[in-house]
């Protein structure tokens, strides 16, 4: 688990059975400008997305890599860094009608990161853009490869997290009120296969989605005005 902007550059290991934080690791060479999402690879490496960009004016977007996080026993470690900017962003911030450069969800797939934007444009139309960049240390331009219209209510439809399951080749996107599950696609053409829309039972500030197994996801919402602060488990095929 992570906390977002202004908090310590620390990751937390949560024990689901005991319902407590079992481990904390501080990333000593990182800064938590606005951490938003986590991803991982098959080698046990953890990736931290420092790309929250509510006002679309940041020029220091980055992703941190913590190697083999499951084998770390110390309370501190270092990370390597991927810095990036968007190939099609020329103003910081752009005009209010073009503010689609905030990212709150990403995945790791085939040595690339895929970033899914949270649209903050003045006239929200539900579009999330997908950007791709190499998953390696250095500085890169994120290339826009696709877009998808979720739904048109800004509070309910803006993308807040993403995850990917390799076994079933399924991508999930989260918003405050919905989950979209994409499957049966080839390579990174996520939106050219099958999509399943799952409305959630009640709206809250849902900020994270993660696969527990190929049929089940965890969803977390933030505590806001005594609402939220919960960990949910949901079957995708119910």
Description:
- By secondary structure, the protein is mostly beta strands.
- It has one domain (about 10-235): 6 Propeller (Neuraminidase), CATH 2.120.10.
- The protein has one helix and 18 strands.
- The chain has one helix at about 155, and strands at about 10-15, 20-25, 35-40, 45-50, 60-65, 75, 80-85, 100-110, 110-120, 125-135, 140-150, 160-165, 170-175, 180-185, 195-200, 205-215, 215-220, 230-235.
- The strands form four sheets. Strands 3-4-5-7-11-10-9-8 form an eight-stranded mixed beta sheet, with no helix packed on it.
- It starts with 9 loop residues before the first strand and ends with a strand.
- The mean pLDDT is about 95.
Would you kindly provide a brief summary of this structure?
This protein has one helix and 18 strands.
SSE arrangement:
Elements: E1 10-15, E2 20-27, E3 35-40, E4 46-50, E5 61-66, E6 76-77, E7 80-86, E8 102-109, E9 112-118, E10 127-134, E11 138-149, H1 154-157, E12 161-165, E13 170-174, E14 178-183, E15 194-199, E16 206-213, E17 216-221, E18 231-235
Parallel strand pairs: 2-6, 7-11
Antiparallel strand pairs: 1-2, 3-4, 4-5, 5-7, 8-9, 9-10, 10-11, 12-13, 13-14, 14-15, 16-17, 17-18
Which term fits the overall shape? globular
CATH fold node name: Neuraminidase
What kind of sheet is the major sheet? Answer: 8 strands, mixed
Assign the structural class, choosing from mainly alpha, mainly beta, alpha/beta, alpha+beta, or little secondary structure: mainly beta
Which radius of gyration do the C-alpha atoms yield? 17 Å
N- and C-termini, Cα separation: 27 Å
Low-confidence runs of at least 5 consecutive residues: none
How does CATH name the architecture? 6 Propeller
By CATH reckoning, the class would read: Mainly Beta
What is the total number of structural domains?
Answer: 1
H/E element string?
EEEEEEEEEEEHEEEEEEE
Count helical runs. 1
Mean of residue pLDDT?
Answer: 97
Main sheet strand line-up: 3-4-5-7-11-10-9-8
């Amino acid at each position: 688990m992570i906390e977002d902007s202004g908090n310590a550059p620390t990751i937390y290991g949560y024990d689901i059975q005991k319902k407590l934080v079992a481990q904390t690791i501080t990333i000593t060479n990182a800064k938590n400008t606005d951490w938003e999402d986590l991803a991982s690879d098959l080698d046990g490496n953890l990736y931290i997305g420092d790309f929250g960009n509510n006002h679309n004016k940041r020029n220091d977007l980055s992703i941190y890599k913590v190697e083999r996080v499951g084998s770390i026993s110390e309370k501190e470690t270092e990370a390597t860094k991927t810095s990036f900017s968007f190939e099609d962003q020329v103003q910081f911030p752009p005009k209010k009608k073009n503010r689609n450069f905030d990212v709150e969800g990403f995945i790791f797939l085939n040595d690339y990161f895929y970033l899914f934007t949270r649209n903050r444009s003045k006239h929200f139309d539900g579009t999330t853009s997908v950007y791709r960049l190499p998953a390696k240390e250095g500085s890169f331009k994120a290339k826009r490869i696709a877009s998808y219209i979720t739904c048109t209510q800004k509070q309910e439809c803006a993308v807040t997290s993403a995850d990917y399951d390799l076994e079933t080749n399924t991508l999930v996107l989260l918003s405050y009120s919905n989950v979209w599950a994409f499957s049966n696609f080839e390579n990174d053409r996520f939106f050219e296969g099958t999509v399943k829309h799952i409305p959630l039972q009640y709206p809250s500030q849902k900020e994270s989605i993660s696969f527990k197994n190929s049929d089940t996801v965890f969803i977390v919402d933030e505590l806001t005005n005594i609402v939220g602060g919960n960990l949910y488990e949901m079957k995708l095929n119910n």
